[in-house]
Amino acid sequence: FKEAGVTGMIIDLRNNGGGLLDASVAMADLILPEGTVVSMRDKYDREEAFKIDAEYYDVPMVVLVNEYTASASEILAGAIRDYGEGTLVGTTTFGKGVVQSVIDFPDGSGLKVTTARYFTPSGECIHEVGIEPNVDVELDEDAVTRYGINNLPHDQDAQLQKAIELIRSGEVK
Predict the structure, then answer these.
(1) Concatenated DSSP letters of 24-40
(2) Is 96 a catalytic residue?
(3) Euclidean distance between CA atoms 166 and 89, whole angstroms
(4) Closest residue by Cα to residue 93 from 139, 39, 138, 129
(5) For a disulfide at 28, which of 14, 37, 64, 155, Cβ 3.0-4.6 Å?
(6) From edge to edge, which strands make up the β-sheet containing 61-65?
């Protein structure tokens, strides 16, 4: 970031259904101050916290989210929101805040079991609730139908345009 002269960033987590927990923690380590990114608690209230160090690149940041932002993407968005290091723009996220583990059987089949819940740094469980953006911006349904969500021209993407406006105005941390 420093070498590239980045002075602000927009992270697009829309339609990102998750991914690896380790990847979201690694990303958070680049852009957030020291602390807990996420914790997991099982039914016995045993907790495991994922922490990051104090070194990070501090620039104004906007995160784009929508109803298809889920799981590991929500973990990153929730940490950014809780630390106050960026502004979330878009619509409420999906709300997948559970840890699922796979139990493999000798015959090659398996069973996926929910083993814990995720909690944001502030202690919030977002399961079946999602994360509300700081700035609620809906997309134009006609434009989405015409181009598809992943192919919206930048000038037709109201959420991206709002993010750019916030970065340029200096209204975001």
Answers:
(1) HHHHHHHHS-SEEEEEE
(2) yes
(3) 10
(4) 129
(5) 37
(6) 9-12, 61-65, 87-90, 135-136
Residue 18 scores a pLDDT above 90 = no
Opening angle at CA 57, ends 171 and 59, nearest 5: 15
Catalytic residue among 24, 82, 157, 162: 82
Structure confidence by residue, pLDDT tens digits, 70-121: 999 999 999 999 999 999 999 999 999 999 889 999 999 999 999 999 999 9
Verify whether residue 122 is a known catalytic residue: no
Cβ proximity of 155 and 5 under 8 Å: no
- Asked if 67 and 155 touch (Cβ cutoff 8 Å), the reply is no
**Distance, CA of 147 to CA of 156 (rounded, Å):** 9
Strand, coil or helix: what is 68?
Answer: coil
